[in-house]
Every structure is written in C-alpha cells, then in structure tokens.
Amino acid sequence: MRQQFTQVLTKAANGNELTKEDIVTLLQALPGEEEEQLFQLADRVRQENLGDAVHLRGIIEFSNYCRNDCHYCGLRRSNKDIKRYRISQEEIIEAARHAAELGYGTIVLQAGEDLHYSGEQLADMIRQVKEVGDFAITVCVGDRSREDYELMRKAGADRYLLKHETADPELYTKMRPGTSLEERIKRLNWLRELGFQVGSGNMVGLPGQTVETLAEDILLLKELDVEMAGIGPFIPHHQTPLKDSPAGDLKLTLKALAVARLVLPKTHLPATTAVGTLHPTGRQIALNCGANVIMPNLSPAVYREMYQIYPEKAGSKEDADESHERITSLVKEVGRQISTGRGDSPKEHFKNGPAL
C-alpha cells in the first residue's frame, strides 16, 4: 500500500478527525489491498459503534407526483410518459399493518414533492400510521415550509430524510433547476431545531462531480451531524436529460460509504436500493463496507414500477412479502441479524426515541 494511504488509514483507525485531503486520499484507494483495508476498517468501526443488527426501514411510496424538474429523476414534472398515482389512505394503513406484522421498527412515508398534500393532511397520515404499530416514522416528502415540518413532528414523525444530493452549490442548481443548496441546508437545520432525527445524503457519479466534491459531501454530512446518511450511485433514467450519462461507479460508491462510516461512526448508513440495482449482490457488499440499514419497499405491488426515480429499481417487481424474504435472506448471508427494535440513533438524546 502507498505510504500516504497507510498514514491516513491509521489516522482514521485511531479515531482522529480527517481533513478533506485525507478523505480524498481514502476515496482514491487503489484496487486490491488498499480497498480491502478500507472496507475492513469501515466494517470494524460499524461493528464497534452499532453492533451487528441490520435495521429494516419499510418504505411506502404513496405518491409519484412531483413539482420539481430534477435532471436525474424519472419522477420529474416534465416526464409526460410516466403514469402518476396517489395511494389511498386505506392502502397506506394496510401497508403499515403488514409492516407491523413483519416486525418492522420503522415506516418511511415517501413521495415526490406533491403539493396536493397539505401539511395538515400529511400530519393526519402520520397520526393514522402511528396508531397501527409501535414503530418510528420517517417522512421523505422534500422541501416544505417550517410550519409543515412542525405539524408533522407534532403528529408523531420521528425522523425526516432530506438528501442534499451534492455539496457543490452550482452543480446542485444545475441538476435541480429553480432550487438552491442553501435553501436545502436551511431546511435541514429547521428539522434539527424541531427535534427530528435527521437524514441526508448524496449521489455518487453525478455528471460534473469530482472526488473533491464527494469529500465535501461527507464533510457536509458531518457538519450537519446527521443521524442517517443515504449514499448511493447515480443511475441514469431514459426519460431525463441525463439519459446518456454513465452510471455512478459501484466501487467509488462503496468507498464513499466506507469513508462516511469512518467520519460518521454512529450514523445509520443504508445499503441502498441503487447499489442493489447496479449489482446483484450490491447490498450484501455494502453491508460489509460499513452499512447497517436496508430499506425494503412495502408499497402495494401495483404501484411499485410507477415510482421510477431510476429504471429497473431493485425489488420493484416484487410484492412486500417477496421483498421482505429476500432482504431477510441477504442479511443472513453476510452473518448479520435483523434488528427487533426501532433503530433510533445511538446518540444519547435519541436512545429511547425522541420526546414529542
């Protein structure tokens, strides 16, 4: 291994703070021994800080309408070839009941930025789902007003996922027309102030991204002190402006995940569906590179292929039981066990679930 790489890896192993230059060095780990040592250290740090349990977060994708026109997303408002849907409240409740039967500790209510739903309606949805079972609720519906976030929090939402996508302000606005990174970070800070467990994250391989930008993504996640960070590869969608761009590199994604684990030892990191889409055993590999969360799709089967952020999404052709069985199997394959709790942040003030 190169001397500089060894020095930085040793620095990380000793729990010392990594600089941007250190992070870039680790992200540029060479194939072979350097990558292996990086992944092994990330796996060890995960085990020491979070144990061997894998937390399942069951996603219910309740609407694929979106007001945004993001260049990378198949749900973008300019895509006229997508069949739009909104799941009824009854179907959402039924999916939540099934999640409770399967023993899930978290439900993720996810949608495009669909302004059909007012803050009050989202709060009512959260209250009804919360009554179904003893699980935490994560909400992922994008940019809303502070008042809406407060309504959701008071209704019982425990967590909020709002990915920053890229720490490069110019690239952010280029990829997400009409929006700014500054506004997104403002909302992430609102969520923190309101007492949510906060999730963010970024894509790996966006056109125009550099390894330095990727290092800045990881440092931003540290600055935000997130409880969860979703790091997954960019996958081009044929109905977007980026349709001819190459997909993000699997190895670079895994290295970003591993370095994030070293920088954020107590943060929940999912083995993303996108990694599973790029490679048949992508999620198993990610679980050995620092990940400790999987987010199975629990949406009714009829809607799954319509929630197409990117094509051929892993699990989109399965029903909830098939998805659950496959996830359970792959967790066992890597010698880990399914968590039986809510999977709250191990940070002291979140250990027993945040006070509402």
From TrEMBL:
One record GO biological process: water-soluble vitamin biosynthetic process
Highest taxon of the lineage: Bacteria
GO molecular function list: 4 iron, 4 sulfur cluster binding; metal ion binding; transferase activity
Co-factor note (free text): Binds 1 [4Fe-4S] cluster. The cluster is coordinated with 3 cysteines and an exchangeable S-adenosyl-L-methionine.
Pfam families with a match to the protein in the record: Radical_SAM
Cofactor(s) needed by this chain: [2Fe-2S] cluster; [4Fe-4S] cluster
Boundaries of every Radical SAM core domain copy: 52-274
Span list, region Disordered: 333-356
Keywords for the protein's UniProt record, in alphabetical order: 4Fe-4S, Iron, Iron-sulfur, Metal-binding, S-adenosyl-L-methionine
Basic and acidic residues bias (residue ranges): 344-356
Listed CDD domains: Radical_SAM
Sites where the protein binds [4Fe-4S] cluster: C66, C70, C73
Iron-sulfur keyword on record: yes
Binding site for S-adenosyl-L-methionine: E165, R176, R184
Protein name as it appears in the record: Iron-only hydrogenase maturation protein HydE
Species in which this protein is naturally found: Desulforamulus aeronauticus DSM 10349
